[in-house]
Design a protein that fits this description.
Blueprint: H1 2-23, H2 30-34, E1 52-53, E2 60-66, H3 71-86, E3 91-97, H4 106-117, H5 122-131, H6 138-147, H7 152-159, H8 162-177, E4 185-188
Parallel strand pairs: 2-3
Antiparallel strand pairs: 1-3, 2-4
Helix pairs in contact: 4-5, 4-7, 4-8
Length: 191
């Protein structure tokens, strides 16, 4: 309702303000930094760490608790991509699953994204989940996996992997501990 819209706008405004304030000091050196190679972990398949995009040692870390079924999360994703493009060496995005209980298939979508991650396709699967948020179901999960060229037998097996479910639950517990009440919730450098 109105409260969620207001909260979303405030969160987005806070994100933009923090990025602006935190990165304006880097603008003069920006051209020099773009020529350096910086390690990223965008295709990291280690389930003990959250999926990330951007340099490992970025000065600004944006952690986003999100639900693949919630339209506000889908609307935020392109803005985060723009920040990563504008500040490729200064910003790191950390993805956290926070599927909302009231949304059918939200938790299964989170598990499906982690199953895709095990095959090195988390971010591609992430994007397609958001594009199809209003029609997510078991068939759609398989269709997206097929579209991305994933090994479907492995993907199906991983959809039922209790380790992946536990990883999603770990993000949910962390979010609850940090005071997440809805999605998207954004933390910048842990705050």
């Amino acid at each position: 309702g109105l409260n969620m819209k207001y909260s979303y706008k405030i969160s987005l405004l806070t994100l933009i303000l923090a990025i602006f304030l935190g990165l304006t000091t880097f603008d003069s050196a920006s051209a020099q930094w773009r020529t350096q190679k910086t390690p990223t972990s965008s295709e990291d398949t280690d389930l003990m760490v959250s999926p990330t995009k951007g340099p490992t040692y970025a000065s600004v870390e944006i952690s986003v608790f999100t639900c693949f079924k919630w339209p506000a999360c889908a609307r935020l994703a392109p803005h985060l991509e723009q920040l990563l493009e504008k500040y490729p060496l200064q910003v790191k995005l950390v993805f956290k699953n926070y599927p909302l209980r009231r949304h059918t298939f939200a938790k299964k979508a989170a598990v499906a994204a982690l199953a895709a991650r095990k095959q090195g396709k988390f971010w591609q699967y992430h994007d397609l989940l958001f594009e199809n948020g209003d029609s997510l179901n078991d068939e759609k999960f398989r269709h997206i996996a097929h579209e991305l060229g994933l090994d479907l037998d492995t993907f199906e097996k991983d959809l039922n992997d209790l380790k992946l479910v536990a990883r999603v639950n770990q993000d949910i517990r962390l979010g609850a501990y940090m005071g997440v009440r809805g999605t998207p919730t954004v933390f910048i450098n842990g705050k």
